[in-house]
Amino acid sequence: MPRARGGNKRLQSRRKIMRIAKGFKGKRGTSHRIAKQAVMKALRNSYIDRRRKKRDFRRLWITRIGAAARQHDMSYSEFIGGLERRNIGLNRKMLADIAVRDEKTFATLAKMAKEEAVKE
Amino acid sequence: MQRTYVAKNEERGKTWNRNWYVVNADGKPLGRLASEIAVVLQGKHKPIYTPHVDTGDYVIVINADKVALSGDKWEQKMYQRHTGYIGGLKEIPYGKLIKRRPTLPVREAVRRMLPKTKLGRRMLRKLKVYAGPTHPHIAQQPVDLSL
Question: Which CATH superfamily is domain B9-144 in?
Answer without folding.
Answer: Ribosomal protein L13 (3.90.1180.10)
